[in-house]
Amino acid sequence: MNSYIYIKKNKIKLMLNLLLFLTLSSCIDLSRDREYNIYLSYFGDSLTSHFPIHTNDFDKYSYSVDTVAYSNTEDFNLTLIGTKNLIYKEKLNYSNKKIYNLEDSCIVIVNDFINKRNLLINLDNYEYKSKISASCNKDPIVIPNFWSNILSNGLNKLDKNFKYIIIDSKVGENVYSSKINYYKSYMPSIVKHGYSKGIAFNEKEDIIIYWLVLW
Question: Would you say 141 and 109 are in contact if contact means Cβ atoms under 8 Å apart?
C-alpha cells in the first residue's frame, strides 16, 4: 500500500514538473515571438510585409535589429536556417522579380565599410563612403551590410552563394525615419537616402534572410 502511494506521488510530481516545463517553454516562445512582433510593428506593415509573422514556426532562427541609427541607418533582418521549402516558396512568390548576386556591377551595399571591429567608431571623423562601380550604367541596387551575421567575409559579410531579391526599394530626398539625419550620408549621392526591403537566400546551405534597411 505504501509503495503504491509512493509511486502514485512520484507520477503526480513528474506530471506537475512536465506541465511546468511545458508552460515555461511556451512562455519563453511567446516572449520571443512578442519581442519580434514589437519590431515588426515599430517599422510598420508596409516595410515588413514580406517578413514571416511568427518566429515560433521555425527551429533555427535569429534576428538582428537597429533602431538607434548610430551609423545613420536603421535595419531589421531575420535569418532562418534549414528552409529549403521556404526558399522554393519565396522564389515562386517573387518570380516576377529579378534575382541578383554580388557580381552585379550596380550593387551598392549600405555603409559597406562597417564591420564588427569598427562598428563603434565615430564615423564623423572619417570620410567613409559606400562604393559604386564606375561600370554601372543603370539605377543602383541597394542591399544591406549584414555585418552582424557570422556567415562570411564577403563584401556585405555574406557568402558568395547568396542571391538577392529586391522586393521594394526607393531612393530620394525623403528621410524614411525620424532618427536618420538627412544632412548626413555615407552613401553615393545618387542613393543618398532611401530604403530597401527584400530576401537573401543561399540554396546550397538552406539559409534565407528577410531584410529591411533604411538609410
Answer: no
Under DSSP, the state recorded for 106 is T
| Residues whose CB falls within 8 Å of the CB of residue 103, separated by 6 or more in sequence, listed in order | none
Burial 108-119 (b: 16+ CB within 10 A, else e): bbbbbbbeeeee
pLDDT digits (tens, 9 = 90+) for 135-172: 998 899 999 998 876 556 667 888 889 999 999 999 98
DSSP state of 7: H
* Residues 196/48, Cβ–Cβ less than 8 Å: no
pTM of the predicted structure, to 2 decimals: 0.80
Q: How far apart are CA 196 and CA 86, in angstroms?
A: 21
Cell 531575420, residue?
78
In the structure, how many helices (H) and strands (E) does the chain have? Answer: 3, 8
The reported pLDDT for the residue numbered 197 is 97
The pLDDT mean for the chain works out to: 81
Question: Which parts of the chain have pLDDT scores under 70?
Answer: 1-32, 119-126, 149-154
Residue 190 Cα distances to 75, 76, 185, angstroms:
20, 23, 11
Which CA distances in Å does 4 have to 12, 15, 16?
Answer: 12, 17, 18
Reported as type and span, the H/E element at residue 75 is strand 74-81
